[in-house]
Amino acid sequence: MQDVISQVIPHLSGYDEPTLDTAFSVLAEEVSASAAASAANDPEAFRLLWLGRKQGRLKSISETWLKDAPPEARKPLGMRFNQLKQQIEAVLDAPVAAKAAVVQGIDVSLPGTAHKPGIPHPLLTTLDAIVTVFHHLGYSTRLGPQVESDFYNFEALNFPPNHPARDTQDTLQIAGQESKPGRDRLLMRTHTSPVQIRTMVAEQPPLRIVIPGKVHRNDAADATHSPIFHQIEGLCVDTNITFSDLKGTLDHAMRALFGSSVKTRFFPSFFPFTEPSADVQISCIFCGGSGCRKCKHSGWIELLGCGMVDPAVFDAVTGERRKLGRDDGAYDPAKVSGFAFGMGVERFAMILHGVSDIGQFYSGDMRFLEQFS
Ligand code: PHE
User: Fold this and answer.
1) Among 108, 183, 186, 245, which is disulfide-ready with 151 (CB 3.0 to 4.6 Å)?
2) Which fold would CATH assign to domain 122-372?
3) Model pTM?
């Protein structure tokens, strides 16, 4: 700015109106020039230059000019200083306009700043791919809250209060809930299974739904664990649903996701809300089943949990529906049966993309993320 505006106080050759007009139009031009040079980038420097209390140009000039002014020139001088001050204040009030003035100073021959288009996060792509496989089978999507009650997260899913099965899902409890009855206490949902209950309480069978979402556990972060991660739940309820329907559905889904040569196998397992329950393994997609480091030389990779909906779950749903006046026996275990499954999105993404540290998904590191573009 120093280059544009000299610090010297201009000489005033007389106090008649034409001389004042000329002197002030020079000052007005100086204000415009310094606004274009720096008001947008550094409005404080611009303000100090013109309005600074000690060294401000307006103050020095007005003092010098007023000192020698004949009494009749004070009014026309004062008026013109006020106008100039308004011009300066208008620049400070309108940073956008000032910026536009600066644009004139841009060298348009310089290369521009490239803004790369964004890409979906690899976890979202994976979530989408899984959900799409089930959409093609006629499933639709349901969502539920991340802050959940003990009833939906545990009790209705056949985890009784104080039952050791709760220890398998280290839970983050919301503080200050002690005065509430146990079933109403809030916690961060540890799985997407509570949305099974919410959906069945609200809707009649037949149901074929997938439930993607965030879940929370009081787990220490390591290469394969994160206290916040994503699951996709599946639920199918209808008449005559059997374990072979569950096997066929998951076998198809695994082949659709990992390739048609992938085999699935079901291992007996335990979940309080399914009976019988199973862990599903797929043949190792890295070695084809012959054994490698990734599958710990077993030839198999464990991927998800599943099972037939436990009649106790249907009973809990019926109890809730009754409270809401939906006393229709729609979920009578003698009439309907169903299966459910739950899988971790991060685990799928890690296997699909060969990622060995779950933390990479949350790091925001462009060198990692750009590999998925
Ligand atoms: N909710 C279970 C978990 O998070 C997974 C699961 C879902 C198992 C549905 C069986 C049926 O571990």
Assistant:
1) 183
2) BirA Bifunctional Protein; domain 2 (3.30.930)
3) 0.71
